[in-house]
């Protein structure tokens, strides 16, 4: 029996842990996720509950206390909303939108990409031409047009993000599946007269996942950034459900007049989130890279 | 013979220091190659034969490292060389041929560019002169219409042709020693025959020594003068081809020869060596073959020393066959 | 051929099998071709009019070098590929008869053992699933008896059944070979196509696996189509040897006949080239030339550019496979000497 007799999952965990930076990124990411999920519970204030706001507290600097003695750790914005709470809620929305859109885009891209690879012929040509057309437009442009037509709302922005992203997954899965399809274990499955559906889902799919996971992880970051951009431009999410992008947008006008914190801290939060995701994605990519195994 | 050997490997140990432990890829291997001699280095996967070849040329990267031993080539200890000295030796005095010719050939460069590059790296000659030598080299390895071939790219060649080009590159600077790591394993039998023919002819004519690394005993039988058998990173037996094939002393060599189909009666079960090659991670002291050896005794738990039962014959076994 | 009555019908029969792989031009290339760019679809002539009959219990060794089409033929027998022309028969009836009726046992009767122990096992499936999936899917074994059944099959091929829950990368090359064999055996086949099944193995492991093939043949009454480039292995295992060159069968005879009295010039060259395990130094007298590409095979007899005896007739007319002595077939014009 060869050494290294643990299963692939245990080995994967061990390899991931080799990079301190990636582990740090993972820890940070998990912290952000937890914080985002628990936002309503842990934030000092619900910044969108108008009853809780006191406009007299607006534009307080970080650490400053209000007239009643409440300390706003990261200051307040121009409406008197607590920045810290705003960021926590914003993280929640940003992450939620980012992850949801990625998951849906992945599902759609996965199915279409595998169909294209497995069936070939006109199915392949059709799907791939759609993918090509989709990918030749700048993502922002498509999203802007869609949102202009659809209006504001969390579901609409998710829809726009999915539309813009599924093509990456389809293309990645297709090239992966094309390679795997030629391999002998797929031929073996055919000699064993296993049905087509079983071959595609039980044999091909699990082996096409690694590159897909890498793409998906990075795409979550892209989705979040894209959503932030759209919100910054005023499209997508309404005022009542601001993501980090919208928060940054709110504070933009004050950036050079001394009240930097209204944009700055949401910006930092956004930066940390995307960086954490990228660190994890980098390590994933390195591990999941096909290597010669001896 | 009074002349010192061209290459003398003494007690070579090369280990890989991995997270999972120390892999003793080459563990106390010694042999020598005379000028113009053809040595067959024989072993199965995990025997360390390829790693020995790489060690000779200093091609071992971390986490691998030569931990002990000397490799003396024409008076110079190769384990002590710096980068500049290596550049003068590699491709010039010692050349290597790999199993996959695409390890030698750059897919985006033309053949003439690549061979000329090899020449100009070691000789201060004009480009025309280098090109002429390239052409000569292709002819020497049996490539017809060399002028056409020089203008082509590697992907336009078959596997056998590419390997011939790789051999031409190895030969073009007239090295004293060529190390060939399984060069014909991936090729068809008729092409293998051609290449063996070319290599034999060239080496005999130019007096180039050759270390031919392979797992295929029958290839060795046809081309080599001396044979060195390796198992699990260790040296096991060496001698002339006739000695090893007709009178093997080590049980492993014997088992290897016996398991070849042509040495067995048709249709009957082949004589086989039971068990599997041990993992190089968990090898301790003692003979690595003892788990699978029919002659093993408790004494084999100690590492046997190398003995010389007759001149030119070396062996590492407490219970040689008779 | 029996002298006492009609020969029993062969178990597997191939008639006139041809296979061409054509690379289609995509839309852009087709437009370019219309405009005169001269791009043409390339056709690989992998197989050209192959006839082969294999009787029950026989071991037929199929030998040839790259481009001869032996792997393609194996895949056509195993139903991975469809022939461009020609007929395949199993127990006297065309393959198509077995597709529609859902007669699973017959569809599973021909199984394949692959060359690459790495690539032929799904790296993400445990061995118990690799071996046990098909029997359960096809109803040969009840789901709750799967593990016991897999354990039995593993023992039969010499694997330790306690390792069933491990993944392929945790096994050595020889063990993976055995897993591939177990996977094929698990569906109770009658016919195994072994496509270079031992080529990737070390000599000592190869001996073990070859012995396994011999043992299984006796134990289960299997029939083999053993595809290999290694004549030594083929000689040891086969009753009959079929030699292919560039898509055609050039010679077919019992193993003894082929090695003692081979007829076709290519076979002669092949046998002369095999490195032998003898200490006498050989002068290799190689056969000249490279194997032509199956994209553009030479006209007439495919072997004529490299044949030391070729004539004008060989360049223009393809020789037919003819019986030159009982049971010995060869495709060479030189046999027609008056």
Please explain how this structure is put together:
The complex is a heterotrimer of chains A (294), B (322) and C (338). In chain A, 42% of the residues are buried. Chain A is 70% helix and 0% strand. Chain A is mostly helical. The mean pLDDT of chain A is 82. In chain B, the strands form two sheets. Chain B has an eight-stranded mixed beta sheet with strand order 6-7-8-3-9-10-12-11, with helices on both faces. In chain B, strands 2-1-4-5 form a four-stranded antiparallel beta sheet. Chain C has helices at residues 27-34, 70-77, 96-100, 104-107, 127-137, 146-156, 173-185, 203-220, 231-237, 255-260, 265-273, 312-316, and strands at 12-22, 43-54, 59-63, 85-90, 93-94, 110-113, 191-195, 223-228, 240-245, 248-254, 322-325, 328-330. In chain C, the strands form two sheets. Chain C has an eight-stranded mixed beta sheet with strand order 6-7-8-3-9-10-12-11, with helices on both faces. A four-stranded antiparallel beta sheet of chain C has the order 2-1-4-5. Chain C is built from twelve helices and twelve strands. Classes of the chains: A mainly alpha (294), B alpha/beta (322), C alpha/beta (338).
List keywords for this structure.
heterotrimer, A: 294 residues, mainly alpha, MetI-like fold, 0% strand, B: alpha/beta, Rossmann fold, 8-stranded mixed β-sheet, 4-stranded antiparallel β-sheet
Q: In order across it, which strands form the biggest sheet of chain C?
A: 6-7-8-3-9-10-12-11
Sheet having the most strands of chain C:
8 strands, mixed
Average predicted local confidence, pLDDT of chain B:
88
Shape of chain B: globular
Outline of this structure?
Chain A has 294 residues and is mostly helical. Helices cover 70% and strands 0% of the residues of chain A.
Give me the secondary-structure topology.
The complex is a heterotrimer of chains A (294), B (322) and C (338).
Chain A: H1 8-16, H2 20-37, H3 39-42, H4 83-119, H5 121-136, H6 139-150, H7 154-181, H8 184-191, H9 196-232, H10 244-251, H11 261-288
Helix pairs in contact in A: 2-4, 2-11, 4-5, 4-7, 4-9, 4-11, 5-7, 6-7, 7-9, 8-9, 9-10, 9-11, 10-11
Chain B: E1 7-18, E2 21-33, E3 38-42, H1 49-56, E4 64-73, E5 76-77, H2 83-89, E6 94-97, H3 111-120, H4 127-140, H5 146-150, H6 159-171, E7 177-181, H7 189-206, E8 209-214, H8 217-223, E9 226-231, E10 234-240, H9 241-246, H10 251-258, E11 307-310, E12 313-315
Parallel strand pairs in B: 3-8, 3-9, 6-7, 7-8
Antiparallel strand pairs in B: 1-2, 1-4, 4-5, 9-10, 10-12, 11-12
Helix pairs in contact in B: 3-4, 4-6
Chain C: E1 12-22, H1 27-34, E2 43-54, E3 59-63, H2 70-77, E4 85-90, E5 93-94, H3 96-100, H4 104-107, E6 110-113, H5 127-137, H6 146-156, H7 173-185, E7 191-195, H8 203-220, E8 223-228, H9 231-237, E9 240-245, E10 248-254, H10 255-260, H11 265-273, H12 312-316, E11 322-325, E12 328-330
Parallel strand pairs in C: 3-8, 3-9, 6-7, 7-8
Antiparallel strand pairs in C: 1-2, 1-4, 4-5, 9-10, 10-12, 11-12
Helix pairs in contact in C: 5-6, 5-7
